[in-house]
Structure formats: C-alpha cells, structure tokens
Amino acid sequence: MNITEQLKKKILDGGQIGREEALLLKDAPLKELTDAADEIRKKICGSQFDICTIINGKCGRCSEDCKYCAQSIHYHTSCSETYPLLDTEQLLEGAKYNDARGVLRYSIVTSGRKLSDPEVDQVCESIRTIRKETSIQVCVSFGLLKEEQFRKLKEAGASRVHCNLESSRRYFPSVCTTHTYEEKIETLKAAKRAGLSICSGGILGLGETMEDRIDMVITARELGVRSVPMNLLNPIPGTPYEHNRPDRGRSLPMRGHFPLFDSLSLHTPCRRQRTDGRPWRSLFSKRSECRYLRRYADHCRNHRRNRYGTDQKAGIRNGVAQWLKHCLSQEPAQTREKPLSPD
Length: 343
Description:
The protein has about 350 residues and is an alpha/beta fold. The protein is built from twelve helices and seven strands. Strand 1, helix 4 and strand 2 (about 105-110) form a beta-alpha-beta unit. Residues about 250-260, about 265-295, about 305-315 and about 330-340 have low confidence and may be disordered.
C-alpha cells in the first residue's frame, strides 16, 4: 500500500493527517492523488454543494496594502469606483434576487481594514430586513472586527464570518504589512466566540511555497474553520503581483494541489438544504460531473481573453454566470427528508 492509499484510509477511518504526512503527498502521481481525494469527497460530502454569492457592500479606498488588491490606496489600478456602505434597499434587492434562484448564502463584503461602529449598526438593520423578507443565509466579510461587534451581527441574523488567512503565518508579511496574521486569527476566534461559523482560506499564486499552502490549511483546521475558499490569483495591473502567475516563480504548479487540500480539510459534511424546505440544485451526478466541469472550464477559457482589458471583470463575470445559468436550468435535486443545519 503506497503512502496515498495509507493516508486516504487514515482519513476515511476518521483520522487527520499532519504536516509531514501532507508533504509526502506533494509529489504523488496526479491520478493517484485525485482518485483518493475524490473517494474522500464522495464519502464525506457526497455530490451536492451549495452556492454562495457575494455583493460588494462598500467599494474602494482601502487603507491596507495587500499586494494583490485593486482597491488598495497604495497602488494605481484601473479600479476607480468608490462608494460607501450600501443601504438596506440595495442589499435587500440583491438578497431577494439570489434567494429566488435557490442560492443558499448571500455574503456582504466590504473594503477597508474594518467597519466602524456606526457602519456595523447600519448593516445590522439591513441584515434584519434581509432575514425577515427572505430565507437566504447572510454571511459577512467586514474586516478585523471585535467580538462585541460580531455579537451584534449574530443577533441581527448573520450566520457566518469570512476572513481569509491568504497564506501561511511565515509568508503573510510578504503579502501585507498593514495588519498581521495574528490579527486575522484573533478576528476568526472572536467571531467563533460570538457564536458564528467561520470561513477562511487563501489565494494560490502569491509566490508562496507548497509548505506555505499546507501550513495555511492546517491553521484553518486548527481554528475550526467550516468553509475553506481557495482562490487563484488574478494578477491586477498596477499591483505588486501584476506579473505573478500561479505556475511561475516561487509558486509550485497547481497540478495536484486541490486534491491535496481536500485531504487536509476538515471533512465536515458540505451538503445543505434550504431551511424553508424548498429544494436547491444538485449540480453533480455520476454522469454529469465531468460535463459540468468541462463546460465551466470552457466558459472561463472563452472569457479570459478579457483578463487585462477594460472589460476584464465583465468577461470573468459573464463566463461564470453563463455556467451557473446552465447548471441551474437543469432538473432539481431530490429533497432531503431532514434539512441540514445552515452552518
């Protein structure tokens, strides 16, 4: 039995793999690694997933110097749009639109180091209205808030907090200098103490090593993170990372990384059902899984020619939107007898 099979069995038996064990997988054959990860995914998560949409609740003029970000005041980019925190009517409109289409989560994301107390009070009113008039779950990404502020958001109806670690503790000072890794960790701990579930992942392609990526996911696991978003760097002209590529420089190739993260993750069930009993879409089945992924890849390929053009964002949005439109037009999934927790 090779090391991949040994570690797969360990996970399927309820165990967790450590850093040194994970490092042994980085050179495993791709097919061997993906097959093992897929078996883990099928047993623990099944073939269903939920969709979380985001709305840019406050845009531009960010005081932080994250080297990948187009909204930072430290860099000259094509992102010239700025606006204050959206009002309740605007946020509710987006929530209703997504709720009507079966989306489970609606995340309000704001620029800046953190929202002020008056802004937190304002968005709490918006969240109360959204929860009253829709069945969608509300997630928030408001920066480095304190526990008291998270408690207000929890009482208003928010269910999850997002704050990305971005990379490992070792590499993070190369990504941002205006706040620390410890501040991010304390933010996540404060949200958890307030009774909120937490979402935290990172960006691949910042110049980090495989060891950094493994350390980041292990840190997320130690914090009790429920959702781990993994993003690929979109190099924005004008930022320090404008010439970065995920497969160049100090970064290792993407080949095989996502199956490795799957092996390291918490493996809590990811299947969800709307709390109102209405079915949502199961996009993957044995016969359709590859077809959907190929269609998604085709859409991204068709639209990435706009990556550095003036309509860059529109191109990316259109590609993903067309894929989701196709997926959501398919036959509905079977409903579950017992709805799962929205967490």
